From TrEMBL:
Skewed-composition ranges (Acidic residues): 32-46
Any one of the GO BP annotations: maturation of 5.8S rRNA
GO molecular function: ATP binding; helicase activity; hydrolase activity; nucleic acid binding
InterPro entries: Beta-barrel_MTR4, DEAD/DEAH_box_helicase_dom, Helicase_ATP-bd, Helicase_C-like, P-loop_NTPase, RNA-DNA_Helicase
A GO CC term assigned to this protein in UniProt: nucleus
UniProt-listed PANTHER family: ATP-DEPENDENT RNA AND DNA HELICASE, EXOSOME RNA HELICASE MTR4
Alphabetically ordered keywords of this record: ATP-binding, Helicase, Hydrolase, Nucleotide-binding
Domain Helicase C-terminal: 376-577
Protein name: RNA helicase
Taxonomic source organism: Chrysotila carterae
Helicase ATP-binding domain ranges (all copies): 155-311
Amino acid sequence: SAAAQPDVAEAISNGHIDVGAQFAGANKGEIGEVEDGEVHEDDEVQTEMPSTMVEQNHPRSGDGARGSHGRSSDAQEAPTDIDSTATPAIAQVDKEPGKDVTSHIDAGSSTHEVALPLNSPPLLADDPLLHLPICDSYAAMTFPFELDLFQKQAIGAIERGDSVLVAAHTSAGKTVVAQYAIALSLARKQRVVYTSPIKALSNQKYRELQGQFSDVGLMTGDVNVNVEASVLVMTTEILRNMLYRGHELVREVQWVVFDEVHYMRDKERGVVWEECIILLPSEIRFIFLSATIPNAFEFAQWVATCHAKPCHVITTFKRPTPLEHWGFPAGGDGLYLLQGSDGVFREANFNCAMSALRSPSSQSAAARIGSRDSPDMKRLLSALEKRQLTPAIIFAFSRKEAEGAAMAARDLAPLDEESQKAVQTVFDAAVATLSRDDQEIRQIGRMLPLLRRGVAVHHSGLLPVLKELVEILFQEGLVRYLFATETFAMGLNMPARAVVFTSVRKWDGETFRPPTAAEYIQMSGRAGRRGLDDKGFVVVMLTEEIEQEEFRQMLCGSALPLESAFRLRYNTLLKLYSSETLEPERLVLQSFYAHQRTRHEPSVQAELDELKSLADSLRTPHAARVAELFSRHAECAALRKKLNDWGMRPRYILRYLQPGRLLRIIDGTTDYGWAVLLGFRHELNRPIRADAETLEAQTAHDYIVDVLLPCAKDSHGSTTASTTASTHT
């Protein structure tokens, strides 16, 4: 460790941290297997389940780890042994009517489709596009492991020089495809751009690619390193800005990799992906890496239509490391298996967990989950440690909760002496890059004691150098427990053996709700390290009651389809109009939004025609008389309103406005209900006189009526159950 210290300091001072192999193996003992269902036998965290055990022998579905078919078991069962995973069934996909593609199925683990521009003739069965070359070795790059079928298919598309979309589970190995494209481009003296949605992922990819390829640069909003490199890693916004400026790099690039392209559904930033894909020249080829999305073909067809070239769609249904999902009720006695690697949802176990949560002790413990003194968090961390289910990522849905939960681990045993020295070395080198004032920041001082115990915190509120420090230490096995917000799950290649959720609800800016199935997939997918773990373990801390169907939708639901977030912004229009080559009309007409509407137009038109036919069939012989009746009814309503307005004039109504009278307050379409009259006054605050002449003289002005209206106790400005309101008469 001491010998490696100068190299680490130099690496950090150059704008990045790369401990590389210096600390490889530190604090990385052999990961023991969990035998005989030991997770539920801990002295502190025990699983109290009915003694009845129902043996389950279900074949796995395509996504065995998630049970996408929604299968369930209503039998109560004790946690069983961790069984081995069965081989996935062969996928079966039929060609959809009217689909401009011919697809074929590759046995067992993946599908291959070819998306063509809209209105293109279908491909013939012997078209070379449908038969990608599958090889055991490739000239541009060799791999020290056997490639999966979907990886070979994607590389075959790259060898052909075609764009490709790879949709696969987290940690399935999508990055291999991008690595091969980079190697092939470097061999051909071409440049590559690798884009990611967040800076943290860009930093990680830069470090990762720099270890494989020599000529790699980084461009983010914080730092630029080797910007003339053949391989440039950047955020998607940086690429978009280059396109608007007409940067010379765009003319030199052959491949553009869009990592985590499913982020395009983001309401705020998703439009950036659309702008980049539309504005990039058609000579450039694309590699899209995405989590599984149900409308991957629709997205690929849009890309093919934009650039008038085919785009391959490679989808894999195989998760390399199956998952088991457990529930841990606050204040309860143990863990409950909610869904095994067979994809079966255990309804009875869920009900038992909810019953344990309803006890008074559980209600008290639930409120303390995110605090520094949470006994449940301490018990769970201890259980994970004893069962060798580390490293573990603990996801919290707020910075405060992540930091509070991390403090519950402050009493854990420290790392061994060698690991502590390694942590200290990297920490000192990272802090040395900060100014003297920044080194005094509170989060700097609080981080090191936790790191010495193998505990770390990661959220957007940390200094960039601290986030990168945590990422490096986690990758090197020096962090046992990482308390993070959900942004950590966005593409960072940092799997763990276990993932823990501190809550079943999150604040989305408008309301508290359970995570969507897509969000849950993204975070829980970090459990299970390929090649190291037979299974990944996901533990959901049940801090409040949740409906079974709601929880099941989160656990077993399918990912949301990609929906366009395209919108025209003022700065976008200004950039487009200031450019000599970019046209606003092209951006709108070629957007994914327009493509989705155009693609669905025939079905919408057919539905409209069907409704028109239904309306025609419902016509009766008395249609004319019914129409006349409705016309008379409308006339009566208009006269009634006119009469009511006349009667509400001050000259007629003021004499009836006595304090204590009940009034019905209606403002436009809002009915406030009944109110108690307190009094009224002239709009100009002149005293009210009840004689007829005064009333006639004052009818040309409005009157303000003060009333008491019932309102909610927590409504804005309310201190009692009623308030004084004023309305014009």
